[in-house]
């Protein structure tokens, strides 16, 4: 199983290459993990400790006080907000993935009038920052009477030009025309072919798109800020920001909130990681 | 279909926003009406929560129910939302606005004129603060909190160094020079706060940069008060007697905690913040507050921040909204617990936590006195928030000694005229 034992000697990397690779990887790991470490350390500190003590060393233990402050500042809504973020991101991720893959499939495999124009429009959408669309979207959703509902966040988040773009790429690379022709000859309808055959082939790609949309929705800040009023509907990003927008925030409490709120994301990534790996290599070793 | 609905909403707003007086009839005689109130109060740990204050009103007024919503973003983001809300016809009746934002929102047609409704209430509030909620003689809401400049200092350190508490700008400069000789700073020059903090000082010195006459704005920073403030800071920066640090940077807080900074000119609302920054350090119980040393001929101070609650354009029940507005903003002690220095007249009780940090001093009586001596002449122009960038840039340069302090004020003038011109407002030459 272990690949190194089976690699012929001529293909093994030289010791120098191996050393350099390790050094670069360790440096990258440190670079990426250092902020997380800083976050863990800082979330245990009080405001004066944050200023007066070394940022990379633990000072007084203020964990419980920070947690109490976090609960008080969020009026006990903190975990509800984390749940909201999970809900919005999951629903938007699932629906958005389905939309992206089917749109990508249609663009890649069907001939239709104006296809080039549609592709161009989607690519154009890729360049459009979502922040620019938020205010028009708000007025639009207000007309529909959907502001201050979960749909005001979920529906716009389902639409991902990048997801469609990725979906098209994955279909191009991973779904051979021959297979579709064969299934048509065997009498499978287009809908059945899509749901039973194409989606199965695209599973790794879908995980990739799902994670992209999930993270984008989780991080989207301006949309819920504009759309939502009720404290019960806020996602966690918005709630934590509400603690920061005043002059003298309880930094330790906010940082603890930030730390606790990324835990679901970390778990999700660990679970879906192996799918993502195969997703990124899809089509890379086509004979 | 959505577009059609949105368009209907837009037309709906323009149609009814002209007649708020008649829209009060929408509620039937026995139905209760709902007033929405959008705010940015911190609502933090140990404070009397906004929801609890409102609950008291709602119990007493079953026919006028108030829903308060905390807006989580910055002030500028809240303006964006309010403008979108007014266009969409779904705006909250009441919204918290910074004093400098009021003229901007007013000229953009986002606020209701409630001058008549306000008549019965304005006497409950500090006149200087009411003036800041009034544009062109039209009152648009009621003031909530104020930020008169005061002087905070470490009394124990002052005593140890043999310094007297300054009552004039010249005495403050002398104390600062003496403290510098002992390696301490008795003031800090704060480039990031240049816009309101420095303009507030010029107001204290008697300046009134902005005046509106015959429908035209004039901008003038060439008065004696502004020159006095400029020369005060220039002297201290040239001799390196003042700390130069951003107010909201770590360097400032660090200097407070390790007692290199033993005095600072700050807004009244900084009293709990300074106490919070220095909590648990040797500074506890050592600090004190006095009114701002006089920069001009009389005991006067200038505004540095503060906000009011305005009635937004399209509010269906302005009379009830103003009734609540008056009630809410005269709930002095709950608002004090939110960290505010309230604009309403009446005694503010100093919270125990603040009292103990300031050595048992009745801090809020000093702040209330400062409120009373707020300059009534210093008003803001529409678009004043846009002046911030240029002033801060000039203040950074002045703090580093690469440009004179007076440049900050000339930058303010240039930038203010540009802001007025770009808003299409007439400027007197």
TrEMBL record, chain A:
Subcellular compartments: Cell membrane
Keywords: Cell membrane, Membrane, Transmembrane, Transmembrane helix, Transport
Protein name in the entry: ABC transporter permease
Domain annotation ABC transmembrane type-1: ranges: 82-272
Primary localization: membrane
Keyword Transmembrane helix included in the entry's annotation: yes
Lipid bilayer topology: Multi-pass membrane protein
Record field: transmembrane: 20-40, 86-108, 120-144, 150-171, 192-218, 251-272
This protein's record includes keyword Hydrolase: no
Protein family: Belongs to the binding-protein-dependent transport system permease family.
Highest taxon, organism lineage: Bacteria
SUPFAM superfamilies: MetI-like (SSF161098)
One Pfam family matching this protein: BPD_transp_1
């Amino acid at each position: 199983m272990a690949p190194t034992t089976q690699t012929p000697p001529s293909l093994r990397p030289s010791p120098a290459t191996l050393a350099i690779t390790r050094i670069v990887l360790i440096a990258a790991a440190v670079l990426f993990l250092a902020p997380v470490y800083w976050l863990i350390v800082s979330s245990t500190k009080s405001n004066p400790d944050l200023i007066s003590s070394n940022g990379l060393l633990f000072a007084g233990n203020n964990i419980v006080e920070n947690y109490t402050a976090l609960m008080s500042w969020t009026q006990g809504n903190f975990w509800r907000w984390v749940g909201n973020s999970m809900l919005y991101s999951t629903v938007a991720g699932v629906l958005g993935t389905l939309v992206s893959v089917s749109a990508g499939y249609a663009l890649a495999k069907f001939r239709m009038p104006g296809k080039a124009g549609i592709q161009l429009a989607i690519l154009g959408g890729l360049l459009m920052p979502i922040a620019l669309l938020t205010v028009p979207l708000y007025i639009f959703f207000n007309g529909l009477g959907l502001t201050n509902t979960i749909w005001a966040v979920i529906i716009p988040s389902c639409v991902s030009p990048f997801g469609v773009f990725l979906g098209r790429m994955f279909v191009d690379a991973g779904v051979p025309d021959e297979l579709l022709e064969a299934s048509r000859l065997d009498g499978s309808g287009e809908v059945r072919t899509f749901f039973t055959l194409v989606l199965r082939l695209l599973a790794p790609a879908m995980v990739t798109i799902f994670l992209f949309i999930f993270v984008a929705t989780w991080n989207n800040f301006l949309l819920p800020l504009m759309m939502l009023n009720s404290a019960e509907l806020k996602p966690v990003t918005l709630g934590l920001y509400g603690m920061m927008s005043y002059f003298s925030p309880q930094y330790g409490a906010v940082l603890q909130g930030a730390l606790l709120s990324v835990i679901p994301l970390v778990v999700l990534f660990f679970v879906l990681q192996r799918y993502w790996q195969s997703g990124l290599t899809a089509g890379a070793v086509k004979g | 279909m959505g577009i059609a609905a949105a368009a209907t909403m837009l037309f709906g707003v323009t149609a009814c926003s002209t007649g708020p007086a008649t829209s009060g009839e929408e509620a039937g005689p026995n139905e209760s009406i709902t007033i929405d109130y959008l705010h940015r109060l911190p609502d933090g740990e140990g404070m009397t929560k906004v929801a609890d204050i409102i609950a008291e009103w709602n119990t007493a007024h079953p026919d006028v129910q108030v829903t308060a919503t905390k807006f989580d973003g910055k002030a500028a983001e809240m303006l964006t939302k309010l403008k979108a809300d007014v266009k969409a016809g779904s705006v909250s009746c009441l919204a918290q606005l910074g004093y400098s934002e009021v003229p901007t929102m007013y000229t953009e047609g986002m606020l209701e004129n409630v001058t008549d409704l306000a008549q019965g209430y304005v006497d409950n509030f500090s006149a200087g603060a009411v003036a800041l909620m009034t544009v062109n003689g039209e009152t648009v809401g009621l003031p909530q909190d104020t930020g008169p400049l005061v002087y905070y200092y470490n009394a124990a350190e002052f005593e140890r160094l043999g310094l007297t508490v300054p009552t004039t700008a010249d005495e403050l400069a002398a104390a600062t020079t003496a403290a510098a000789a002992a390696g301490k700073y008795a003031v800090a020059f704060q480039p990031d706060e240049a816009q309101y903090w420095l303009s507030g000082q010029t107001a204290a010195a008697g300046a009134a940069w902005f005046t509106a006459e015959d429908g035209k704005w004039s901008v003038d920073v060439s008065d004696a008060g502004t020159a006095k403030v400029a020369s005060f800071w220039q002297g201290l920066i040239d001799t390196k007697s003042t700390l130069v640090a951003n107010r909201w940077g770590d360097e400032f807080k660090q200097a407070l905690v390790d007692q290199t900074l033993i005095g600072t000119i700050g807004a009244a609302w900084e009293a709990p913040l300074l106490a919070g920054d220095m909590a648990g350090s040797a500074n506890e119980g050592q600090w004190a507050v006095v009114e701002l040393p006089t920069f001009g001929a009389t005991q006067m101070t200038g505004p540095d921040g503060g906000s009011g609650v305005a009635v937004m354009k399209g509010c269906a029940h302005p009379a009830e909204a103003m009734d609540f507005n008056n009630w809410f903003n005269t709930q002095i002690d709950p608002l004090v617990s939110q960290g505010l220095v309230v604009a309403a007249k009446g005694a503010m009780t100093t919270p125990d936590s603040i009292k103990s940090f300031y050595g048992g001093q009745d801090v809020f009586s000093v702040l209330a006195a400062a409120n009373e001596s707020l300059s009534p002449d210093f008003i803001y122009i529409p678009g004043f928030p846009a002046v911030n960038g240029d002033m801060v840039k000039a203040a950074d340069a002045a703090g580093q000694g690469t440009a004179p302090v007076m440049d900050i004020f000339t930058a303010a003038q240039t930038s203010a005229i540009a802001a007025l011109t770009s808003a299409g407002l007439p400027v007197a030459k």
